[in-house]
Amino acid sequence: MRKVKPARKLGRTAAHRKATLSNLSTQLLQYKRIETTEAKAKETQRVVEKIITKARKGTVHAQRIIFKDIRDKQVIKMLFEEIVQKVGLRNGGYTRVIKLAPRYGDAAKMAVIELVDFADAPLTSQKSSKQDRAKRVKGSKKTEAAAGASVASAE
């Protein structure tokens, strides 16, 4: 008997989870690349893969089914005209998830999800160092030293 692998609940009710995944899917199809948490990225990947597979049929029925998930006519039009043309004969694997460094505020696992055929260049994770953080923190010694050096060089 086939067992269905359960989906992640993402700490939300069913309706909130459906709305979140719908919004993330819409944004991914619109912008081709989004940054979110790793769990949301993996769940969005499952949803978007199915949407693109349905869109490849190119029928009006497929448009109506997809419109239940993606409630933006411009994105639907872009999906059927631009994205489906680009994926061509690819059998699945339309998206990729690239893991990033943890988020600074709460150390959540972050990731970038992108459409494979629209990726300009592979994304390298930008890890911030302590020096970078010192530049951002107001009143740090390194910030004051850098500001003093720039004022002295301007004179």
Q: Could you give a short description of this structure?
A:
With 155 residues, this protein is mostly helical.
Question: Would you mind describing this structure in some detail?
Answer:
This protein is mainly alpha-helical and 155 residues long. It folds into two domains: 14-123, Ribosomal protein L17 (50s Ribosomal Protein L17, Chain: A), CATH 3.90.1030.10; 125-155. The chain contains six helices and three strands. The protein has a three-stranded antiparallel sheet with strand order 1-3-2, covered by helices on one side. Helix 1 packs across helix 2. It is elongated. It starts with 13 loop residues before the first helix and ends with a helix. The relative contact order is 0.13. The model has no long low-confidence stretch (mean pLDDT 85).
- Please identify the structural class as seen in this structure: mainly alpha
CATH architecture of the largest domain: Alpha-Beta Complex
Shape: elongated
Distance between the termini: 79 Å
Write down the overall mean pLDDT: 85
The protein's oligomeric status is single chain
CATH C-level class of the largest domain: Alpha Beta
Low-confidence stretches: none
Quote the beta fraction: 5-15%
In total, the number of strands is 3
- Strand neighbour order, sheet with most strands: 1-3-2
Compressed to H and E, one letter per element, the order equals HEHHHEEHH
The number of domains is: 2
Structure annotation, total helices: 6
- Cα-atom radius of gyration: 21 Å
Largest sheet: 3 strands, antiparallel
Helix content: 40-55%
CATH homologous superfamily classification of the largest domain: Ribosomal protein L17
